[in-house]
Every structure is written in structure tokens, then in C-alpha cells.
């Protein structure tokens, strides 16, 4: 920045209006806050890998089968992409039924929702849900 | 320090409020394409935090210098320019938070890190758009003191006509175009699809188009004509330098977005040249638009 010397003769020109001080200060606070927060989380989270917790939100009986709504939460310090979330249970007739879906991204400390679809009631057979794998973004 | 009388001057405050409102318009127009790009949302949470912080910090002096050449309101002196830089960032932050909430890109389940990362990344192009609002959304002479406004325009226009001014604005143009396309996967994909011969042809094409733009600026008439300057000198003085600047900026933006990680040297060069193409056009067109 080269301190400009061609300042106008108009005396009012050199004065900075209160609103400019206000908006400028708000901007400086926002920038300082963002930098502080990002640097802090960057330091705290470091490079710890994704750690994905998958939970059943609820099971709904539908006209075409059963829907298991699940929520995936990334407890790790870095984001995961292409997260495969799967679930399986043993049906009354002894067959193992499984279902899965893919999450594009699962950021650190954030959750994403999805649904698993089954043709039998999964509550009867000891339903297990978990993340099967991910790719680094 | 300003006297208490002037700081509360109604007209000065009103003018600043009008300029800020226009700045919001500029921020939204400039950054809306990026706010509707999913790669930008993803980068907001997965890009390296150090690179994001560095990007934000570097934006502050760039905005202050931009304010000198094409600010969203009249600005003189380091303090005024710095305040305007932060004001533009405030506008960028508020505009991007508002639009991202409206588009439901920011959601309840997102962590603070994800929310802040997304907003910060979008606030940067938003702040540049805010700063350029006056030149873009044209407030020339619509103030009560239109003669005063015209004088401001002429002062800035004269500043832009210096060599440093032309190069700086070229850099802003390159930055803006690079920023708009760099987040997409296509940059790396195109780089991988091109042969070495395509890459060489792209360099020639970039330079040719850039030089055409440089001539167009001369013909627009607002810039003082450089009488008797031969083709080669103009080419070396402006076009080549602006192209080199565009490539450096492209490389920096690619690195910031993590697009350079794990690329081989040949691929790195090709991807930089690919992004350098829009960046070069942005650099060349900047002086034409501003």
C-alpha cells in the first residue's frame, strides 16, 4: 500500500464517517474471530483421522418395506468423503439382509442423515449399523 | 484523529451507507456463482485450515490496495483504505452467511468448523465483489454532488493508468477468474486430458487473446494512448508480465484449494496452464471493465 498523497483539498473528505468505523470494526472483528477459530480448530484437531459413529434414528414401517433412518457423525478431526454406511440383521428365516448408502462427504464434528431399506422388520433380528469405509477428500 | 463534528456528519454517513448497500449488491452478484458451486461448500470444511487462514489474511492487503484503485467508496490514506478493506470483508461475511443460510447450505447439524469454513471461503470473493461494486454497479454521478463523484472517478482512473495500477488490476482480474473455476474438478480433469501439444497451444492462445484485450483497452479511449510504442515493447511490458502473474496466481489458488497435492510435475504444469487460461483472460479484461 502506498500512502496516497493526492488527498483532496476538501476538508470533509479526510474525515472518516462513523458508519465506516462501525463497519470496518465489525469486519476486523469477524476476520479476527474467524482466524482465531480456524487456527484453534486446526491446532486441536490436527490430522486425526475420521472417526465415524453411526446411530439408528428410528425405524419406520412403510408400504414397500422397512426404512431405517440413520445418522452418521464424524468424531474425528478430518473430513471423510464417499462414506459407505451399511446395516445388516438376521431375518426370521435365517437369511442375512443388508443395505447400504453412500454419503458424499462427512465433515469433522458434523452429522449427515440417510436411510437403509429392508424388506423385513429389522428390529427383530439384531440390527447393526456402521460405517464401512471412506476416501480422503 | 477526526473531530467529533465530522465523524457524525450526516451527509458523509449517508454516502457511506449508500456505498455499503451497493457493496452488498456487488458481493452477492460476484459470489453467487461460487455460492451455488458444491465444490466450494466441500472446500469450506475439508480444505487445509492453515491455507484458508493464509488466504483470508492475504486478502486484507489486497482489498486495501484495491480500494486505492477502485474502492466501493472514496478512500484516501492508509487508515481509510484499511477500514474499507475490513468493511468489504464485513459485507462479504454477512452476504455469504445470509445467502448460504437461505440456500440451506448451512444446516443445523453442521459443526462450527464447517459453518465458519464455508462462510469464510465465500466471504473472500464476496469482499472483492463488494469492493468493486461502485465500478460494476455504476454510481457514476448519481450522487447529489455529481461533480464531486466524477472527480473521485477521475482520481481513481488516473491511478489505474499507472503501470503498477494496470498490473495490480490485472492480478485482481486473474484472481477473480481463477477463483471462479479453480474449485471445480474439471480443472484437474482437463489438465489430465490435454497432451503436451495442447498445453503449448494453450499458452500461445492465452497470450494472443490477452494481447487482443490489451489493444482493446488502448482503443477504448479512456487510457492515455501510448503514442509510438512498438508492438514488441507493449507485449513484453504488459502482456507477458500479466500472463506470468496470472500463472502465479493460478498456482497459488490451486495450492490453496489443495488441487496441487500429489500431482506429478508435468500434471502440475498442465493444470496451472489450464487455470492460467481463464486467469489470463480475467487479467486482460480487468482493465477494460474497470
Core attributes:
heterodimer; A: 137 residues; alpha+beta; Immunoglobulin-like; three-stranded antiparallel beta sheet; 2 helices; 6 strands; disordered N terminus; B: mainly alpha; 13 helices; CHP02587_IM (chain B); DUF2391 (chain B)
Blueprint (SSEs and pairs):
The complex is a heterodimer of chains A (137) and B (290).
Chain A: H1 11-14, H2 18-45, E1 52-62, E2 65-74, E3 80-90, E4 96-106, E5 111-118, E6 128-135
Chain B: H1 4-7, H2 10-35, H3 38-46, H4 49-70, H5 77-102, H6 112-131, H7 133-136, H8 146-160, H9 163-181, H10 186-193, H11 196-220, H12 231-256, H13 265-289
Description:
The complex is a heterodimer of chains A (137) and B (290). Chain A has two domains: 11-45; 52-135, Immunoglobulin-like (Sandwich). The two termini of chain A are 38 Å apart. Chain A is elongated, with a radius of gyration of 26 Å. In chain A, a hairpin with a 5-residue loop joins strand 3 (80-90) and strand 4. The model of chain A is unreliable at 1-13 (pLDDT under 50). Chain A has 137 residues and is an alpha+beta fold. Chain A is 23% helix and 43% strand. Residues 141-146 of chain B have low confidence and may be disordered. Chain B contains 13 helices and no strands. Chain B folds into two domains: 1-153, no CATH class; 161-290, no CATH class. Chain B is an all-alpha fold and 290 residues long. Chain B starts with a helix and ends with a helix. The radius of gyration of chain B is 20 Å and the shape is flat. Classes of the chains: A alpha+beta (137), B mainly alpha (290). At the A-B interface, helix 1, helix 2 and strand 5 of A face helix 2, helix 3, helix 4, helix 5 and helix 6 of B.
How is this structure best summarized?
Chain B: The chain crosses the membrane at residues 21-44, 50-69, 81-103, 163-182, 197-217, 238-257, 269-289. The complex is a heterodimer of chains A (137) and B (290). Helix content of chain A is 23%, strand content 43%.
Amino acid at each position: 500500500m502506498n500512502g496516497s498523497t493526492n488527498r483532496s483539498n476538501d476538508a470533509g473528505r479526510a474525515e472518516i464517517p462513523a458508519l465506516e468505523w462501525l463497519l470496518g470494526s465489525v469486519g476486523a472483528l469477524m476476520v479476527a474471530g474467524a482466524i482465531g477459530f480456524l487456527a484453534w480448530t486446526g491446532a486441536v484437531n490436527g490430522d486425526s483421522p475420521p472417526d465415524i459413529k453411526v446411530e439408528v434414528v428410528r425405524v419406520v414401517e412403510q408400504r414397500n418395506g422397512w426404512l431405517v433412518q440413520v445418522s452418521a457423525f464424524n468424531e474425528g478431526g478430518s473430513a471423510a468423503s464417499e462414506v459407505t454406511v451399511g446395516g445388516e440383521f438376521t431375518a426370521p428365516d435365517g437369511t442375512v439382509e443388508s443395505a447400504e448408502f453412500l454419503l458424499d462427504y462427512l465433515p469433522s464434528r458434523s452429522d449427515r442423515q440417510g436411510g437403509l431399506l429392508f424388506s423385513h422388520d429389522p428390529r427383530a433380528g439384531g440390527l447393526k449399523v456402521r460405517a464401512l469405509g471412506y476416501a480422503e477428500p | 484523529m477526526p473531530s467529533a463534528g465530522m465523524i457524525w456528519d450526516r451527509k458523509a454517513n449517508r454516502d457511506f451507507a449508500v456505498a455499503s448497500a451497493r457493496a452488498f449488491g456487488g458481493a452477492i452478484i460476484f459470489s453467487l456463482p461460487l455460492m451455488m458451486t458444491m465444490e466450494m461448500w466441500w472446500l469450506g470444511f475439508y480444505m487445509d485450515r492453515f491455507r484458508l487462514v493464509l488466504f483470508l489474511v492475504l486478502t486484507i492487503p489486497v482489498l486495501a490496495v484495491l480500494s486505492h484503485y477502485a474502492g466501493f467508496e472514496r478512500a484516501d490514506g492508509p487508515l481509510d483504505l484499511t477500514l474499507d478493506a475490513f468493511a468489504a470483508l464485513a459485507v462479504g461475511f454477512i452476504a455469504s452467511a445470509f445467502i448460504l443460510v437461505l440456500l440451506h447450505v448451512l444446516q443445523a447439524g453442521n459443526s462450527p468448523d464447517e459453518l465458519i469454513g464455508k462462510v469464510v471461503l465465500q466471504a473472500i470473493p464476496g469482499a472483492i465483489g463488494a469492493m468493486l461494486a461502485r465500478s460494476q454497479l455504476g454510481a457514476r454521478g448519481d450522487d447529489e454532488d455529481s461533480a464531486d463523484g466524477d472527480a473521485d472517478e477521475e482520481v481513481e482512473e488516473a491511478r489505474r493508468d499507472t503501470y503498477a495500477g494496470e498490473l495490480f488490476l490485472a492480478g485482481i482480474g486473474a484472481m477473480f477468474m481463477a477463483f471462479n473455476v479453480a474449485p471445480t474438478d474439471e480443472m484437474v480433469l482437463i489438465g489430465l486430458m490435454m497432451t503436451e501439444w495442447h498445453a503449448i497451444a494453450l499458452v500461445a492462445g492465452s497470450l494472443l487473446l490477452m494481447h487482443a484485450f490489451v489493444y482493446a483497452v488502448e482503443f477504448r479511449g479512456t487510457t492515455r494512448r501510448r503514442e509510438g510504442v512498438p508492438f514488441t515493447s507493449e507485449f513484453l511490458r504488459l502482456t507477458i508480465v500479466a500472463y506470468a502473474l496470472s500463472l502465479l496466481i493460478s498456482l497459488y489458488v490451486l495450492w490453496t484449494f489443495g488441487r496441487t497435492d500429489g500431482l506429478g510435475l508435468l500434471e502440475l504444469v498442465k493444470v496451472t496452464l489450464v487455470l492460467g487460461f481463464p486467469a489470463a483472460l480475467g487479467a486482460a479484461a480487468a482493465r477494460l471493465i474497470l
